[in-house]
Design a protein that fits this description.
The protein has about 290 residues and is α+β, with helices and mostly antiparallel strands. Helices cover about 35% and strands about 25% of the residues.
Amino acid sequence: LARNQRRPPGEPAASPADGAFDLQSQHFALAHRYCNDAVLLIDPERRILDANDRAAELYGYTHEELCSLRVETLRAPIEDVEQAVRAKFAEVIERRALVFEPEHRHRSGRVFPVEVSTRCFDAGGRRYIQSFIRDISERQRAEAALRQSEQRFREFVEHATDIVYGLDREGRFTYITPNIHDILGRPAGEFSGRPFDFVVDPRDRADLHAMFDRVGTPDDMHRTSVYRVLTASGEVRWHSARVSALRDADGSVRGYTGISRDVTDQHLAEMKLQRSERRLNDAQRIGRIGSWEA
């Protein structure tokens, strides 16, 4: 396996004349010795028979010290660690191969998570277990950071007053924030897989489709539109939405993301102001009383 190119007891040695085999054997031994993963050769009694350089580095022992230990010495302290290791070995022997993620212990007492890929094999009439062990501390920290980031984002969008949604490239809903129920009276589950315009007032659907056609072009990544939507009770509300295209590495559109808010009060106020201005302009022209600026 490792630094002294040991072979399991009883396995015949290669013929010195067999150069090809000798070259392969040296390559195999060097590959294991300098492998990025720790490699252990273990007997059925859980004694470590051999270890590579990475194993010595990972656990803080010399090669000779590692080869005087049992595997349970490397496990993090748990209740009845010997029984737990014995049960895992029995499972490995039964299944012949196994991948699992326990916690191991450095010589200093520091505990760290590992991924163990282990296989059982027979050689020279004896049974052996070979384990490839990888420190996954960085991976678990990255996964934890990602989960925290996703949780913060989820809390943000689920408590936002705006509606946040995602669409596939055919314009079907893939996600929408739960606050849609408070705004339109429709549960979020009702939107899954439905086309984006199913709650849009029929009078505005053509314009909204045209907006999506434009936002999918290379020179137009974002669009904002104001349109009417229908609540579950049939009430008409005005919404303003900003939609952005999501692209793959080759530039093709893979979907859309949007933020929408109810602007009914603002829109109606603007329409009322416009009507008032038109009436005043009409009155000024009829009465010849001057301009709006006067």
